[in-house]
Design goal:
The protein has six helices and no strands.
C-alpha cells in the first residue's frame, strides 16, 4: 500500500500535478487584519496587484518578500482609512501601471492592449498575401492554341 502511494506521488511529481493541492495563498497569519471586512478588502486588492518579482502572480499568491511588503502596505493603507482607488493610485504612483494586473487603457498602455490585435491582423494579412501570390503563380487553364499543340503532340506520339 505504501509503495502504491509513493508511486502515485512520484508520478504526480513528474507530471507536475499534485492531486491534493488546493489554492495556495501566500498571506501569512501575522498579516491578517482583525476586521473581516477590511481583510476581505485587502484580499480583493491583493488579487489585483502584480508581484513585481514574480511578474505573473498576484501579491496574494506570491511568497516573495516584496509581495509580502506590498500586502502589508495595502493593509496599512486600509487601516489608515484609504479607499481602494486611493490605495491603487498610491501604488501606481510608486511603482507605475506595471503593479496592476489589469492596467488601464490610456495612451501609455494602448500598445499593450492593441498590440495582440495588430499582430493578429498582420498575420492574417500575410496569409492573405501568400494565398494571393500562390493563386497568381498557379498554372491556369490551357489556351486554345496550347490545346491544339498538345493534341498534335499526342497524335504524333507512337502508341504502344
Amino acid at each position: 500500500m505504501i509503495r502504491k502511494r509513493l508511486l502515485v506521488a512520484a508520478f504526480a511529481a513528474v507530471l507536475g500535478v499534485m492531486p491534493v493541492a488546493g489554492p495556495a495563498f501566500a498571506v501569512q497569519p501575522d498579516e491578517v487584519l482583525k476586521d473581516p471586512a477590511q481583510e476581505a478588502r485587502a484580499r480583493a486588492l491583493s488579487v489585483e496587484l502584480r508581484c513585481l518579482v514574480c511578474q505573473n502572480q498576484s501579491i496574494d499568491d506570491s511568497n516573495a518578500p516584496l509581495a509580502r511588503d506590498l500586502r502589508l502596505l495595502v493593509r496599512e493603507r486600509i487601516t489608515a482609512g484609504d479607499d481602494d482607488r486611493e490605495i491603487k493610485a498610491y501604488l501606481v504612483a510608486r511603482y507605475g501601471d506595471f503593479v496592476l494586473l489589469k492596467p488601464p487603457f490610456d495612451m501609455r498602455t494602448a500598445l499593450l492592449w492593441i498590440g495582440p490585435f495588430l499582430v493578429l491582423a498582420a498575420g492574417a494579412a500575410g496569409v492573405w498575401a501568400a494565398a494571393r501570390r500562390r493563386r497568381a503563380s498557379a498554372p491556369g487553364l490551357l489556351s486554345d492554341e496550347e490545346r491544339r499543340a498538345l493534341a498534335e503532340l499526342i497524335e504524333r506520339e507512337p502508341r504502344a
